[in-house]
Amino acid sequence: MAHPATRADLEGQWNNIQPRLLEEYGEKTYLRWLKPLSIVDQQKGCLRLAAPNVFMRDWVVTNYAERVKDILHSEHNNINRLDIIVTPLEDLSDDVFSEVQDDENLNLDPRFTFDNFVVGKPNELAHAAARKVAESETVTFNPLFLYGGVGLGKTHLMHAIAWHIKKCHPKRKVIYLSAEKFMYQFVRALRFKDTVSFKDQFRSVDVLMIDDVQFISGKDSTQEEFFHTFNALVDQNRQIIISADKSPSDLEGMEERLKSRLGWGLVADIHPTTYELRLGILQAKAEKLEVSIPPSVLEFLAHKISSNIRELEGALIRVVAHSTLVGRQITLESTQEVLKDLLRANDRRVTIEEIQKRVAEYYGIRLADMHSPRRARAVARPRQVAMYLSKHLTSKSLPEIGRKFGGRDHTTILHAVKKIDELMEREKSIHEDIDLLRRTLES
Ligand code: ADP
Ligand code: MG
Asked: Which domains does the chain have, with CATH numbers?
């Protein structure tokens, strides 16, 4: 390019390589670290990008900048250097992270206490273990490893432990941080050649909690450091609490010795929610919000929003906010209206295939019989149950459902739905079957 690059040129060049970055790093990394970068300017072959904060800048510089520069250069050979700065106005310097060292300010969510935690079958083990750790003077199991899907209460339990210890044993030093922050601090310490105080900081705690440890998978040097910190603390009989989205043995990109070490203490998983737990949580939250919500609405939400508790809470808050804003009572109809899109998204999570599989298992018939033309009662009835559930638990149309059942006509599906409705009125056992199936499918 003979003329100096204009901003539009630069943006064009940067945009050009986005698909390659996405491909190379995968969606998660790309969205989290690379997409937020923006163009500043270019001088003498040096392209300047801005990151939203110091943390992100440091992380990008350490992990991605070199490769990103090579990719840029391969597409646009006028660029041979990359500089990443912090978006000037948002340069929060180091304040955001120094808080981690401050024992008084652990960044704990005031709502995440044991009092506010509703216990049910899916989380009773994790809850009991968390309580035990919080209340014990001595270390009973080390580490306590909590795992489960998103929004099921891992962070809540960790904060609850921290709150409890802060209240009952204010002298004990507790550190709670995300694996991401742990990693950030480590990277920083390396950069500023200050690993000694980094180590001291962690090695002088009584209780160390690291949340979402799956985040350090694949990050070898951070894992290495984490492993040493971990061992040092265990040797000194300090309590460690870890959370992750998978069990230790299922963590991908983790060193074997670390995986095995993580599983040495108590591994407690939080299972997907059940209808009862969801209803219990909604009741507790409704009480806290001090609004009157008809039980039918809570039951409806507990039925429909089965993905995770965060989404369940969000739905409740939306319903309450809407009613406050428009000054009308909460009803089943208004709830369905306010949550239209959310309900649709939740519906999509149960597939017809899953329904067919569960129903076939439940009645002990072959999966193939869901599609077969056989009319024997022993297979026809379960098939109708599956059709009925497909109609109620997914947002698929009757013709679509028909296609999935061996290309049957939509009137056949309609007939099945009516038939099962009728039977449910008369036969308690069918009613129970459907209830049970619905629950397992929705949990
Ligand atoms: P995770 O860390 O597992 O992704 P969180 O701990 O952030 O999930 O929980 C998501 C939301 O659900 C939080 O607002 C939390 O308070 C709430 N929550 C989760 N489990 C429970 C529970 N058993 N009782 C009450 N609220 C819960
Ligand atoms: Mg969490």
From this structure: 7-92 (3.30.300.180), 103-270 (3.40.50.300), 275-347 (1.10.8.60), 352-442 (1.10.1750.10)
